[in-house]
Amino acid sequence: MATSEIHTAEASRPGGVRSILKNRRLLxxxxxxxxxxxxxxxxxxxxxxxxxxxxxxxxxxxxxxxxLFGTDNLxxxxxxxxxxxxxxxxxxxxxxxxFSAAIGVAVGILASFSRPLDHxxxxxxxxxxxxxxxxxxLALAATFGxxxxxxxxxxxxxxxxxxxxxxxxxxxxxxxxxxxxxxxxMGTSNLRIMVRHIFPNVLSVLAVQVTFxxxxxxxxEAALSFLGAGVPxxxxxxxxxxxxxxxxxxxxxxxxxxxxAAIVVTVIGLTLISDGLxxxxxxxxxxxxxxxxxxxxxxxxxxxxxxxxx
Length: 310
Description:
Elements: H1 3-12, H2 17-22, H3 24-47, H4 78-113, H5 115-130, H6 133-144, H7 148-175, H8 178-185, H9 190-227, H10 238-246, H11 254-281, H12 283-292
């Protein structure tokens, strides 16, 4: 077998433990998100931090050894509120991602097996996707009322149609594959084909998409809370901290800086996870890396002396 064929065959295998350990972007992203989640789960109880404790005498104090991130406009410890806000954002984003994926996968697979359902379900999805995501989430949150559960429902309605269309496209492609046609010829029921053959093969595209949904859910929650339609105060969230900080930004800019930095770092971590998962599940990306010995994507291309890219 030729060397290039060996490389291609090696690249087409699913990523194992060794591939995961070599995937720096995935490891860095998991490390970033894992550190944030671990800090939000452990540090508040370990350090005795109370995000709701009000101290009017210490309003808008700058960061110090006593208050590492300073205090807000009610004297509450900002570090405690940042950690509690991380827990709120991650729990909400995880719930939105799970329910959006569950609904989207069910709708997408069902639509691929029934033409009448396909027309109905996809037109509903098209109608929801035609409305800007933040505007739709704001309208739904305002309709349902500002609380955690209603925000979870609103964001699930926003993100589920995109997953449904993605899964439907993949499922339609899989239905023309030989192994599915063989199952149909053997008289296998549609339900068994969906569960046994279609569902496992849409997980590769779903794994990458859900990380984007996770990141978008965090940004959407922060935006809605900033607009007053998200998690209601005094419950802490990064959006609420931004909302409180905008009125005192001249005197306490650290409130906006810390909350914004937390959102940016979390989204970067999730983006790295998404890129790493794409490298694991996309055979073309792995084939390029194996054949050339370098990553497929670069921020900058090296150039030779004659100006031609290497």
